[in-house]
Structure formats: structure tokens, C-alpha cells
Specification:
The chain has 10 helices and 5 strands. By secondary structure, it is an alpha+beta fold. The protein has a 5-stranded mixed beta sheet with strand order 3-2-1-4-5. The radius of gyration is 24 Å and the shape is globular.
């Protein structure tokens, strides 16, 4: 019987280990989807508050409630982003139409309210903008990474390490292969302590591979700080100096890998990958600050 790609040969389809692996992966994926759905609704709430600021500005400036050119631009932008992240254009259109329709009722109410003011009387002062605490409350709806640990920690590495290796390997493919020979067959670990995930990678046979042997050097930190490092929103010196990231084991190997990554041309990474990395990292950082302030 053929063993699916990415699974150890000892795990055969239909066997008890395979069923346990599938059950754990399914539960973890559904748990993650639930939290992504929560985040989508939270962001929709944040968008609604921003729309409130727009409607107050329109009322002060005497602008029409609907702006066809702006709405067309919103749809066009969504389609461009969707194409970069492999989301069907119809899905992006449906999502943005729903968000635009959600924004129209409050805007229409704002226009109706403005019609009630008598000519010659001063316009009232605009309503105060929503306080920063409101945005913090929405961000606190995003569960911190440590809340995902009970679900993710039991998952075997075979279910996620190969995927992580493929994602990181695509980035490293931008480097000259000769520059990676210095770390050939050396084992570097990455540990996200708050998620309870740890991977060990080695550059071998011209590609990055996940391996089961112990790491020679390990970079440890939170998922947020590692994302900030990967997205170039914070530099390694700051993160290590503040002890938000820690390098253990073979320090020389860790510094060699860091220098290689510093040479990775950020602008050569696929645009979709850069967008996801930077926007996701900013969201994680803002959510962490909101949880700390709460």
C-alpha cells in the first residue's frame, strides 16, 4: 500500500497511528479555522469603526454618501491581493461586496441625519473618534499563540515539519547555492516556545529538509518575535539584545546562518509572501500589545 508523501513509512493509511494522526491534524486544523473566523469577524468590526470615521468626515465636507470610484478601487485592490495569495477572484468580490454593503447602512444614516439640520444653523461638532481602547478590545479577540499550544503540541512533527521546510526552502532558493555549502548537513532548530512547536532543518542535497536528529544550534522565541524577524520588521540584533530571541548550542553555526539570511534579498521574495509575512506580523504584534495593555 502506498504511503502518502510526508508520512513515515511506518504509518500506513488506515492503520491506528494514521487514524490518530489524522484525528489530531483534523482537530488542530478546525481549532485554527475557528480562530481565523473569529479574527475575520473582529477585523470586520474594526473596519466598521473606521467607516464611522469616514462618514463623519463626509458629513463635515458635504460629500455624497456613496463614492462609486472609491468602491471600484476597493474591489480592484481586493482582486489584486487575491491573485497574489491564490484566492479566487469571485471569493474576493463576494467578501468585499459584503463589507461594502455592511458599510452602507451607517453611511446612509449619517446622510439622513445631516439632512435634518436647518439652514443657517451651525453644523454640530463631529462625534469623537473611537478610542484606541476599542481597537484593543477587538485585537484581544485574537487568541494569543499560547492558547493554541494545547492543540498544536500533540501533533507529530511529520504533520507540519515538511510544510515548514518547504516554505523556508522556497525563500532560501533565492540564494546562490554555493553560499549554502558552508552549512551543508548542519542542523539548525527553530523553536516557537509559546506555540510548543520545534523544528530541526538541514540543508542537504540542494534543498532544505526537516530532520529528526537533535539540532546543533537552536533559535528560540515567541511566534510573534520570530515572525517579526522573518518579515524584516525588526532586526536580529534588537531581538537578541532584548532577549526576545535566544540562540543556544553551537553559537558559531547560529551566527553563520544569521549572516546567510541577512544576505537574502528581501525584494526578490514573491510579493504575496512579503505581504502575508509583514501584514501578519503587524497584526500579531498589535494583538500582543493589546493583550498586554488589557
Amino acid at each position: 500500500m502506498h504511503t502518502p508523501r510526508g508520512l513515515p513509512p511506518s504509518i500506513a493509511p488506515g492503520s491506528a497511528p494514521a487514524r490518530r494522526l489524522a484525528a489530531g491534524t483534523l482537530a488542530g486544523a478546525r481549532h485554527a479555522i475557528d480562530h481565523v473566523d473569529d479574527a475575520v469577524v473582529a477585523l470586520a468590526g474594526l473596519r466598521r469603526r473606521l467607516v464611522g470615521a469616514v462618514q463623519r468626515s463626509k458629513r463635515m465636507a458635504g460629500l455624497p454618501v456613496r463614492d462609486g470610484e472609491r468602491e471600484a478601487g476597493v474591489l480592484s485592490r481586493a482582486r489584486r491581493v487575491a491573485a497574489r495569495v491564490a484566492v479566487p477572484g469571485d471569493t474576493a468580490d463576494a467578501l468585499m461586496h459584503a463589507l461594502i454593503s455592511d458599510a452602507c447602512p451607517p453611511q446612509a444614516q449619517a446622510g439622513t441625519a445631516g439632512d435634518r439640520f436647518l439652514p443657517g444653523l451651525p453644523m454640530p461638532l463631529p462625534l469623537p473618534a473611537p478610542p484606541a481602547a476599542a481597537a484593543d478590545r477587538l485585537l484581544r479577540l485574537l487568541p494569543p499563540p499560547r492558547r493554541w499550544q494545547p492543540v498544536l503540541r500533540p501533533l507529530p512533527r511529520a504533520s507540519h515539519a515538511p510544510l515548514a521546510a518547504r516554505i523556508l526552502g522556497r525563500a532560501l532558493a533565492r540564494l546562490d547555492p554555493d553560499t549554502l555549502e558552508i552549512v551543508r548537513d548542519r542542523r539548525l532548530g527553530i523553536a516557537m516556545d509559546d506555540l510548543g512547536l520545534e523544528w530541526v532543518f538541514a540543508w542537504s542535497n540542494g534543498r532544505l529538509q526537516a530532520c529528526h536528529a537533535p539540532a546543533e544550534a537552536t533559535v528560540r522565541g515567541s511566534a510573534t518575535d520570530l515572525a517579526l524577524l522573518a518579515s524584516r520588521l525588526e532586526d536580529a540584533d534588537t531581538l537578541f539584545f532584548q532577549r526576545r530571541l535566544v540562540l543556544t548550542g553551537d553559537i558559531e553555526l547560529g551566527l553563520t546562518v544569521r549572516n546567510l539570511l541577512d544576505r537574502l534579498p528581501w525584494e526578490d521574495l514573491p510579493l504575496a509572501q512579503r505581504i502575508v509575512l509583514q501584514r501578519g506580523s503587524r497584526l500579531l504584534r498589535a494583538a500582543r500589545e493589546a493583550h498586554r495593555n488589557g
